[in-house]
Design a protein that fits this description.
By secondary structure, this protein is of the alpha/beta class. The chain has one domain: Aldolase class I (TIM Barrel). It is built from 14 helices and 9 strands. The chain has helices at residues 4-17, 24-36, 39-61, 100-112, 130-143, 158-167, 181-187, 194-206, 224-237, 263-276, 286-291, 295-301, 314-317, 333-345; strands spanning 64-67, 69-74, 117-122, 148-152, 171-173, 210-217, 241-246, 306-307, 350-352. The strands form 2 sheets. Strands 2-3-4-5-6-7 form a 6-stranded parallel beta sheet. The chain is globular, with a radius of gyration of 20 Å. The chain binds 5'-deoxyadenosine and FE2/S2 (inorganic) cluster. 5'-deoxyadenosine binds at residues 83-84, 175, 177, 216, 245, 247-248, 250, 287, 322-323.
Length: 364
């Protein structure tokens, strides 16, 4: 006979699938069950949710996987997030920044390869002033009016976000990292504030960006409860995109000796998020591909529908090391795109080059 905890978890999974809004406590039970039930039962639970997640993804997006060209513009960062390999106190990170011409040349190569979204990501590097970023955004939009520009440049004032939006930026990625304030404070130095992060996300949404939040799975000090907080936050905030990947330790950081997040738990949470937000854009992340050779394929089968191959010049690739052993650091953009297309084909999916805007309907 199955015990009560197990019965309860499977009943909650059914209710989640049926569309009922679970409470934080109920999410906690579900997340605990995935970790603590027998091997057989936990994989049955994962399978139940991933099948529904895949079905919902297919309903809204078919077998298309959107690709975004990621350009890592700078690994200078004034912040000191405890988990991050490019934190300012990491003494061994060899710093670089791309010039405007470098960035535009990445876009040119990317466009020729079929990319229709460019993601400019970087540390919080004061060299890239609001004006400089705006100039680059304007130039990309001028050269490639059919492309979307996504920024992922950390926390800025509402005015700066508004200025970049006016310059033509369409989307912004800023992971919330954790929706639990106490947990946030264990992952970040005192000068970084949970409330400031939340305020940024709210500003971005109000300014008309398509907004992406997200978190690492298996981050130090993460608990079933903090993950449940993440799920409740995501359901209520209804972001257009959610970046979810495993935490992976980075050398020369305070968390260098911590354990990485697991494939199974990451896929499980990805599936739950797909069920909560059926129309969201959910990347199958590079970090997922780093902890398992077929991580990105498995991510798509668990409900993901976006991949973000790297367009950064190969010469700087390995320097943008948020975590150790990152994949694709030696491959040219064209190689990566072909490799990814083959991987997606192997699971019956097709890489598509459309802009791939979110179908998430506007707020309730
Ligand atoms: N492992 C996995 N992901 C990481 N990130 C930063 N450091 C790590 C790490 N060690 C993620 C953060 C950040 C995003 C750009 O990369 O969630 O928001
Ligand atoms: Fe980069 Fe496979 S996607 S080498």
């Amino acid at each position: 006979m199955a015990d009560l905890f197990e019965q309860n978890a499977f009943a909650l999974a059914d209710e989640l699938i049926a569309g009922r809004a679970l409470s934080k406590e109920e999410f906690t039970v579900l997340i605990r069950a995935e970790r603590e039930l027998s091997e057989e039962k936990s994989s049955e639970l994962r399978k139940k949710l991933s099948e529904r997640a895949l079905e919902l993804k297919n309903m809204h997006y078919g077998n298309a996987v959107y690709i975004r060209g990621l350009i890592e513009i700078s690994n200078y960062c004034k912040n000191n997030c405890l988990y991050c390999g490019i934190r300012r106190s990491n003494p061994t990170t060899e710093r670089y920044r791309l010039s405007k011409d470098d960035i535009l040349s990445c876009c040119k190569d990317g466009y020729a390869l079929g990319f229709r979204t460019f993601v400019m990501q970087g540390g919080e590097d004061p060299y890239f002033t609001p004006e400089l970023i705006a100039r680059i955004v304007r130039e990309i939009k001028q050269n490639y009016p059919d492309c979307a520009v996504t920024l992922s440049l950390g926390e800025h004032t509402r005015e700066v976000y508004a200025f970049w939006r006016e310059a033509g930026a369409d989307r912004y990625l800023l992971r919330h990292e954790t929706a639990n304030e106490e947990h946030y404070n264990k992952l970040h130095p005192a000068e970084m504030k949970f409330k400031a992060r939340m305020e940024c996300l709210k500003n971005l949404r109000e300014l008309g960006y398509q907004v992406g939040c997200g978190m690492m799975i298996g981050a130090p000090f993460q608990t079933y409860e903090t993950l449940a907080d993440d799920l409740v936050f995501i359901r209520d905030f209804r972001p257009h995109m959610v970046g979810i990947g495993p935490f992976i330790p980075a050398h020369d950081t305070p968390f260098a000796n911590e354990k990485a997040g697991t494939l199974d738990q990451t896929l499980f949470i990805l599936s739950i998020v797909r069920i909560l937000l059926p129309e969201a854009l959910l990347p199958s992340t590079t970090a997922l591909g780093t902890i398992h050779p077929r991580g990105r394929e498995l991510g798509v089968l668990a409900g993901g529908n976006v991949c973000m191959p790297n367009l950064s010049p190969v010469a700087v690739r390995s320097k943008y090391a948020l975590y150790d052993n990152k994949i694709c650091t030696g491959d040219e953009a064209a190689q990566c795109k072909n490799c990814l297309a083959g991987r997606m084909r192997s699971i019956g999916h097709e890489v598509v080059t459309a802009r791939g805007d979110s179908k998430l309907t506007e707020q309730k």
